[in-house]
Each structure stands twice: as C-alpha cells, then as structure tokens.
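ingest -> validate -> predict -> emit
validate: passed (alphabet ok, no gaps, 364 aa)
predict: started
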Amino acid sequence: MSILTDEIARLTKQVDDAKLPPDLEKRVMGNLTESGRLEGDISARVHIEQLLRYIEWAVSLPWNHETEDILDVSKAQAILDKHHYGLQSVKDRILEYLAVFTLNQKRWKEEAATGENKEWKLSHAILAKRAPILCLVGLVGTGKTTIAKSIAEALGRRFVRIAFGGISSALDLRGQSRVRPDAEIGLVLKGMRFAGTKNPVMLLDELDRVAEGTRGDIMGVLVELLDPEQNVAFTDHYLDYPFDLSNVMFITTANNTTNISTAVLDRMEIIQMPSYSDEEKTKIAKDYVLPQLMRESGLTVENLSVDDAIWPKLVRPLGYDSGIRSLERTMNALCRKVARMIVEKKGSSFRVTEQNIKEFIEAY
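emit:
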C-alpha cells in the first residue's frame, strides 16, 4: 500500500469516529474519493495535499465532545480567592453571573428532560446554555487574564486565549478561502481544535489593540462571535461550513473601551478592574507572588525571608504602578539573586533587610 492509501484509510476512520454533520461528512468523503482517484497524477500532488489538509481540520474539530460543567458557586469562590487577593467587587459580579448560569443550565436540563414548556425550550434553549459575555476593563497588570483562567478552572472547562494585539485582518479570525494556495483556518476554530471541546472558556484578549486600518472589519466578526443569535452558525471561510459556538463562554479584556465599536460593547457586560493599593500589593507579594516565584526558583522558606519593614519599598521600586507586573519582576530578580548565591556557596539562608537590600535588588 502507498503512503497516500494509508493516509486515506486513516482519515476515513477518523471521519467515522468524528460523527460529522451529514452534509459535511458527504463533502469530506467526496474529497477522500477524489484524493484516491488522483493518486497517480503527479501534477495533482498540491491539490491532493490541500484536500487532505481540509479533511484533517474537519475531523479534528470538536463537533460533539464537551466537558461537564462544575456548577458550584462556593467552589468558584474558593478558586477565585485562591488565585486573587482583593477585587471583591469583581469577584461578586462574576459569582452572580455563575449563579445565573447555574440556574439556567439546571432549568434547561429539567425542562428538556420532562418535555414541559416546549415554547420556552424552542425560543431559549440556546440562550439558556450560555453565560453572559464579560468584558474585563482595566490597566495592565491588574489580573484580567488570570481572572479568566480562574473562571475556566471554576467551571471545569478548557481555557483558550486569542490575542487581538496586532491582528491586522479579519481573515485572521475567520480564515481564508481555500481557493488561495496558502489558505489557513481562522484563529477561532484553531482555538476550538486546541480546546478539544464545544464549550471552552475562550478569552478574546486586548480587543482595543487591533490594527487601526482593519478595526471595522474585525469588529464586524466580533459582533457575529458574541451575538448568541449568530454564533450558533459561525462560518469560517476555510472550513466553509457553519460551526456552533453557542456553548462557548466568551470573556474579553481591554485596557479601555475607546477603540471598541458600540455594536460590540452592546453585546458585553463591562466589569471595571480596579488598581491595587500599596497595602494590597504588599499582601499579594507576601502570600501569592513571592511563594510562587520561590517554588519556581527552587527555593524554600529556609533559603529566603524578607523583613516586613522593607515591603513598602519593594512594591514600588520605580514609582507607582497600577498592576503587579513590576512587583513580579522585582521579586523574580530577588529570587534569581538568592539562587545564584546559594549555588556559588555564599550561604544557604538569606534575609533581606533595610541594611542589605542593595545587595539583592539593584534598584536600591
């Protein structure tokens, strides 16, 4: 058997396992038949490769697989508190949305099982499975992306991130038509393949940072993505077949909403991410950042300790910062310095004080 024959046999089995929609399955099987027919034609090699690549994408998308949601608000509260200090107003808003999502899920399942209230089911079956679309707006380093990851963890869903910074074409999201030899599927369906489920948490990160010249086209795609009446049949130009995104929980982030179109904003719920005070940063540094960086650097509590008196200096070595990224860089530099000193056998236990802080952190 030839390599192409083996490949066709493998893809045929994947088509059977994938349980594709009937129309798409018919198209895919037609492409497989055509690939086998052209096997002996040397001039058709590029065309065969394009056909097989299309089939590979079609069978690898999660048409039927989804994870079971963890509908437990108290567990979600514990996960948010574990990963994030403060931000109580933000956490409350998220937990409220999760509570509504939980009630809608239970109601939809109960009525679907009993067959009651068919009129409600027909008009709201899709919406009942959805969560509200949250837009986290705040300055850099305030925890927008990590909050989204925590929501995914709380729900027991896979997490996918699409970075909008610098996207220069709507085709990056929607894919390119296969008439082009270098055509690719769009970032949205790439994310779905990476997640492997129909219901991931998909983070659309930094919506306000798309390229200026194509902002209008990209916002048009976003309207379709975020509108529950439209994303039930989102069509990627490469796949050229509707894909149901209604089970995806979309979360978006932005530094500000100035560059986001009104139509997109109308489909989202804005949550303002507050800046951290110095006291909050000190608590975050002690209980979250430093312990994590010490573990990543191979240090233990016996290797490094920091006097309480110098924390106010550590949280703003170069002036005020709304987020904690500067703080993370400072703590990371401290851990690296101590790790090197231990390896060079200059000691095994170090304490940072006001007297020796310059030995550990160059900013002082």
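Confidence is low (pLDDT under 50) at residues 118-129.
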